[in-house]
Amino acid sequence: MLVIPIKQGENIERALKRYKRKFDKTGTRRALQGRKQFLKPSVQNRAKVQKAQYVQLLRDQEAV
């Protein structure tokens, strides 16, 4: 569990924003989403390859 202390004079919206940012950075959200639905290893690998191809395409476009 993540504990975010509220600073003196800080409003709750700001503290909540810090909590969400820290929650995303720790990878907890991704882990929860991954356990929500089972994906076959072949589907996971295919998605990883597609993401790598997309990132490479973006990098190639930047270089031009």
From TrEMBL:
GO cellular component, as recorded: ribosome
Gene3D superfamilies according to UniProt: Ribosomal protein S8
Keywords, comma-separated and alphabetical: Ribonucleoprotein, Ribosomal protein
Superkingdom per UniProt: Bacteria
Cross-referenced InterPro entries: Ribosomal_bS21 (IPR001911), Ribosomal_bS21_sf (IPR038380)
Pfam families listed in its UniProt record: Ribosomal_S21 (PF01165)
Family: Belongs to the bacterial ribosomal protein bS21 family.
Name of the protein: Small ribosomal subunit protein bS21
Gene source species: Olleya sediminilitoris
Name of the encoding gene: rpsU
